[in-house]
Amino acid sequence: MRWLVLVLVLLALFFQLGARGLNEPDEGRYAEAAREMAASGDWLTPRINGFTHLSKPPLTYWSIAASLKLFGVNETTARLPSALAALGALLALYLMVRGAADEHAALWSVVILTTSAMFFLIARLVTADMVLCCWVTWSVWAIWRRSNWLFVFLALGVLTKGPVAVVLPLFAFIGLRPPLREFRWVIGLPVFLALSASWFVALALQNPELWRYFFVREIFQRVATGEHGRSQPWWFLIVVTLGGFLPWSFTLFTRRPLDATTRMFAAWAVLGVLLFSLSQSKLPTYALPLMPPLAALAAMTPPRRWHNALVSVSLVAALLLLTHYLRTRCGLATSWVIAINVVAVIGALAALFYRHAAVVTFLAVVLAVIALLPGIERQLRHNTSMKPLAERVRREDPLGKALVVGHRCLPTTFLFYLQRPVRAYNPGATNRVAVFEFHHPAPGSPLLVTDLAAYRAMLATTQRVFCVASADATETMREETGVAWRELERAGYTVLLSNQP
User: Fold this and answer.
1) Fewest CB atoms within 10 Å of the CB: 51, 60, 83, 385?
2) What is the pLDDT of residues 383-396, one digit of tens each?
């Protein structure tokens, strides 16, 4: 069974990893910052289009940049660190559950986590969330094993996404309650501080405002205020966590023996949900580091007959909704919809008697959908990749002599695929505190134009100009810029224009 689980994991994480373009904006933001880091050789300061971009610590950028440097610039190598981080989290979970229960429960926990909706989806995205999940899971493993690697894993987590990487393992520590004397605090704390604080100190020497930016704007305001515009109801993360754990959410609602390891996993999950529910800023991906303890709890509990029935119902419901969305919004052929739904129903009926059938069904349908992704992507509107626009520019301007500008927008995936700097017209980029934000770079940059007169003067040229803009802005920008723009191509709600045919 071990080899079958390994095949399942490798297919789920790596099959067709680069089949679709990077999504706008999040995947493009991480990938482009890493690409510029690898190209410039400056591994200290992340930048996007030459603008300082410090909204996240650097470990995710470093891992993606290393992948791009070793294997080339493409979608697969950009997503590879997330997939490897998912593999690392699965290994740590396997080791914990095998030690706490047995081999069968450990393998089943890996299957459950791999096939849970949120874990599977985020493992195939360019993001810091899966890297954080990996280090949090290994930190909990170190707590469970009383290993002094805990301090290294905590530091790596902080370098990925800040203090939350310490708080979540602390919840597991509270649940397990291991003796404090079993950890070498005198050596471990200096190691943790040296690893986690070194990058922050080095950057703060160059940017004194960095401390205020990170600890006030990115931590205090994100947790205690609605400054970031991500406020949600208090119950939002509860629903997201249960929804993200589908189709296995129903296996959590059963009584189980409350030994030390179970308390550890339960505290990690429950206190984590409570923490994120109290935060004023909430995103669905915040629930990702809570998926491993849920998988452990589900796998360590003897299965009930009604579990299989509910797993079957949820699996069919999820796949019906997915295929309906793909048919109505993405143009998926009716024949594919029928085939996927037939497989789902047969698998769900089999899962009523044999729960492993749900896994087989899930894998079969997911592999089919992944294989269809290139065609589906062409039909997407929101969050679509700007790859076609960048390829059009590179095809028509192979020597890179044309002027490329972003009119009040600058899609990060466009930059990643274009692989060259772009002039940005952003008349609102005047806030000094936003020097660390890509969307509002520091005034004075040679790549940034904030004055309309200077912008029009820049465009008053016989040189070929390509312009990326929102489709909604095309009607007004001709009058605003004084240029008779011609539309070349669209991707989602973004359009590529040129001053020449």
Assistant:
1) 83
2) 577 888 999 999 99
CA distance 350 to 63: 41
Residue span of the structural domain in which 120 resides: 2-14+55-299
In sequence order, which ranges of 210-331 are alpha helices (DSSP H)? 210-212, 221-224, 236-244, 260-278, 291-299, 305-330
Together in a domain, 364 and 427:
no
Asked, as a colleague might, if the bond just before 25 is cis with ω within 30 of 0, I would say yes
3-state class (DSSP) for residue 498: strand
- Based on the fold, state whether residues 455 and 487 are members of the same structural domain: yes
Q: Which two tokens stand for residue 37?
A: 């880091």
**Spatial separation of the C-alpha atoms in residues 224 and 281, rounded to whole Å:** 8
Q: How far apart, in whole angstroms, are the C-alpha atoms of residue 159 and residue 59?
A: 5
Average pLDDT, the chain: 81
124, 17 Cβ separation under 8 angstroms: yes
- pLDDT interval class at 250 (50, 70, 90): confident
DSSP of 16-32: TTTSSPPPTTHHHHHHH
344 and 316 in a single domain? The answer is: yes
CA–CA gap between residue 8 and residue 483 (Å, rounded): 54
The number of residues in the chain equals 501
* Tokens read off for 346: 């047969």
C-alpha 82/C-alpha 59 separation (Å) is 12
Return the SS3 of 488.
strand
- Dihedral sign for Cα 329, 333, 335, 339, please: negative
Residue 375: band (very low, low, confident or very high) from pLDDT cuts 50, 70, 90: low
SS3 readout for 175-192: HHCCCHHHCCHHHHHHHH
Does residue 247 have a cis peptide bond before it, meaning omega lies within 30 degrees of 0?
Answer: yes
Question: What total number of domains does the chain contain?
Answer: 3
pLDDT tens for each residue of 104-143: 889 989 988 998 889 998 999 999 999 999 999 999 999 9
- What pTM was computed for the model? 0.85
DSSP-assigned beta bridge partners for residue 470: 494
Report yes or no: 227 and 241 within 8 Å, Cβ to Cβ: no
Which tens digit of pLDDT belongs to each residue from 296-312?
A: 998 887 666 556 666 66
The yes-or-no verdict on residue 237 having pLDDT over 80 is yes
DSSP 111-154: HHHHHSHHHHHHTTS--SHHHHHHHHHHHHHHHHHT-TTHHHHH
**Is residue 88 domain-shared with residue 219, that is, in the same domain?**
yes
**For residue 352, which phi and psi values (nearest 5 degrees)?**
-60, -30
Q: Is the pLDDT of residue 434 over 50?
A: no
Under 8 Å CB-to-CB from 137, ≥6 apart: which residues? 88, 89, 92, 93, 289, 292
* Inter-residue contact 211 to 204 (CB < 8 Å): yes
